[in-house]
Design goal:
Number of strands: 6
Strand content: 5-15%
Strand order of the largest sheet: 1-2
Structural class: alpha+beta
Number of helices: 7
Helix content: 25-40%
Order of helices and strands: EEEHHEHHHEEHH
Largest sheet: 2 strands, antiparallel
């Protein structure tokens, strides 16, 4: 069975070893708000056979992808007897699939989904302003590496993950809470 809308439309990327890989993480749908025109309970003869449901209710086996996506089914073998299948309207459902192939660096494409331009404007944050002023301005969530930075390093045959792999080291890089604690301790000694 071919899946031109959900699998074959995904871009092929080349990893650092020159191997071609299909990027299955790329989004297939523009949105998932389908219009449903009918529903049915899966009969015993149709267990694990969504193509039969597509043929019977949608008129064509090629509409299988639409049926599965509209019912949020990623594993067609999970369909069991008496499951309720919603039958989507074919014409509008067909337009919900992304038809453009996305090319480029996969890491940049994935990061682009999470960029929020409003977050790049760092305003005065009170006591923490000095901490933010010296940092690189980024719009990515804190668990994403900055552009052209690595998420891990190989040191002595070991994979090292951690806060200093992507963090730019600054002079006196002490956590702010610890620094305040030390200042208060010095004040109490006086």
């Amino acid at each position: 069975m071919r899946f031109p809308k959900t699998v074959e439309s995904k871009p092929i990327i080349t990893d650092k070893n020159g191997e071609a890989i299909r990027d299955l993480t790329t989004q297939s749908l523009k949105d998932n708000e389908f219009i449903y025109v009918d529903m049915m309970a899966v009969p015993r003869d149709f267990i694990m056979r969504p193509e039969l449901i597509a043929h019977l209710r949608m008129g064509n086996v090629d509409k299988l992808e639409i049926l599965l996506k509209a019912n949020e089914i990623s594993n067609p073998f999970s369909i069991d007897e008496n499951d309720i299948m919603l039958i989507p309207e074919v014409i509008t459902s067909d337009k919900k699939f992304v038809t453009e192939l996305v090319g480029g660096d996969v890491r940049k494409i994935i990061k682009k989904q999470y960029i929020d331009p409003k977050k790049s404007d760092i305003k005065n944050t009170g006591d923490n302003y000095e901490d933010y002023r010296d940092r690189e301005k980024t719009m990515l969530p804190p668990n994403y590496a900055k552009e052209d930075d690595k998420e891990f390093v190989l040191t002595g045959g070991k994979i090292v993950l951690g806060p200093y792999v992507t963090k730019k080291a600054y002079k006196g890089d002490v956590p702010l809470a610890k620094q305040r604690f030390l200042e208060k301790m010095q004040e109490l000694r006086k």
